[in-house]
Amino acid sequence: MSHERSRDAYDRALSVMPGGVNSAVRAAPQPYPVFARKGEGGHVIDADGNRYVDWIQGLGPLLYGHDPPESVTAAVQQHVAEGPVFGMPTELEVEHAEFVTRHVPSVEMLRFVNSGTEATVSAVRLARAVTERNKVVVMQGGYHGAQESTLVEGDADHPKPSTDGIPQSFVEHTLPVPFNDAEAAKGVFEDHGDDIAAVMVEPVQANSGVAYPVDGYHETLRELCDDHGALLIWDEVITGFRVGGLGCAQSKFGIDPDVTTFGKIIGGGFPVGAIGGKTEYVEQFTPSGDVFQAGTFSGHPATMAAGLEGLKYAAENDVYEHVNDLGRQLREGLAEILAERAPEYTVVGTDSIFKVAFTRSDAPQQACSNGCRQNPECPRFGDCPKRGTDAAHMETDRYARLFRPAMREEGVLVSQNQFEANFVSYAHTEEDVEQTLSAYRDCL
């Protein structure tokens, strides 16, 4: 494959954009990123005309791939033609909110915003106002957007900013604990329970290594929040309307969070975020309450049309059956390949999410063939990824410098680094799965 145009574009970009990109992860591919020109179904075509099976899918928002159903495209085009933005409410916002509240168990009221980051920022502000407390429990290695309250590393006793530009005084209100460690969660509540406003957690840590929850872990967090008067915030920016179908991951795991943050699929591939939850909490946002929250582009007509029509199409068709079945085929096929080619690695993922984690296990490759399920009886249980921080100890350089470039030359695009997940879309086919498994077999 030739990549001259991508290389030239990146060379130009380095002169006018920091790192040549507008979001850091896009610069991760070695030696430079592929520049996309257009998408077709489950494929993407780059600036040089090369065609790839695309498992990045915009980092998760594209439930339908690059060709949305005709009803979605028509709705978006209609609302764009009627005016780009009004600074006034539209009926479409109401319809979309009504659809979400009908299908997501915990959501009684909804506020649309413009990104997942904006949703999590607003959710933390809301929790602090409702509880009149300041401290927020987050998971080590997790990611909840580019916001000061969660860009924190270390532990509950020694939190520190994970990036320059955040004062130490900010992060003293953040309590990082390990995901999947119920005892650590209990300990932090024993020490700080009267000061904790909320626990913010992903149902599946899908932004850093794809770690599935241990049985009972989310139930423990729910009980701790109930016992101490804190809010449980589920960050479903990635899992929302992907894991668990229209009911989201909370329906899959049977948990009733107080507040849920959304992004990605809820906007059908357009910029979006949302904060949903119990009426008594969400109505505390201005103007009905005193927690300020506002945005010029919130509830944008094109986004509302894409999100609503996309979810309605999923409700009326076999979308989740299709994507989840392909996800299962990928995970099971990858487990067979790893047993032969790389038994030290681990298959992770659920529903329409998949990944090969470049772990360093000495245990036999034989259990959890449909993706790691944190089964204590599995011989690999001690070595499988339990939390986001585990991804940093995997063979990240091997993934970035050898494996991913080789997959690209085989015509398959997988996530930009070892931390991000891969996503199946409704446009993907069994032929795409076969090509991808063949590429994994050759490149591992």
Beta-strand segment tally: 16
* Mean pLDDT level: 96
**Strand adjacency order, main sheet:** 4-12-11-10-9-5-8
What is the CATH C-level name of the largest domain?
Answer: Alpha Beta
CATH topology (fold) name of the largest domain: Aspartate Aminotransferase, domain 2
CATH evolutionary superfamily of the largest domain:
Type I PLP-dependent aspartate aminotransferase-like (Major domain)
Beta-strand portion reads 5-15%
Distance between the termini: 20 Å
CATH architecture of the largest domain: 3-Layer(aba) Sandwich
What's this model, at a glance?
The protein has helices spanning 4-16, 70-81, 91-103, 116-131, 168-171, 182-192, 217-228, 248-253, 279-282, 301-316, 319-341, 396-409, 430-443; strands at 36-40, 43-46, 51-54, 109-113, 135-139, 152-154, 159-161, 174-177, 196-201, 231-235, 259-263, 273-277, 346-348, 353-357, 412-413, 422-423.
How would the blueprint of this fold be written?
Layout: H1 4-16, E1 36-40, E2 43-46, E3 51-54, H2 70-81, H3 91-103, E4 109-113, H4 116-131, E5 135-139, E6 152-154, E7 159-161, H5 168-171, E8 174-177, H6 182-192, E9 196-201, H7 217-228, E10 231-235, H8 248-253, E11 259-263, E12 273-277, H9 279-282, H10 301-316, H11 319-341, E13 346-348, E14 353-357, H12 396-409, E15 412-413, E16 422-423, H13 430-443
Helix pairs in contact: 2-10, 3-10, 6-7, 11-13
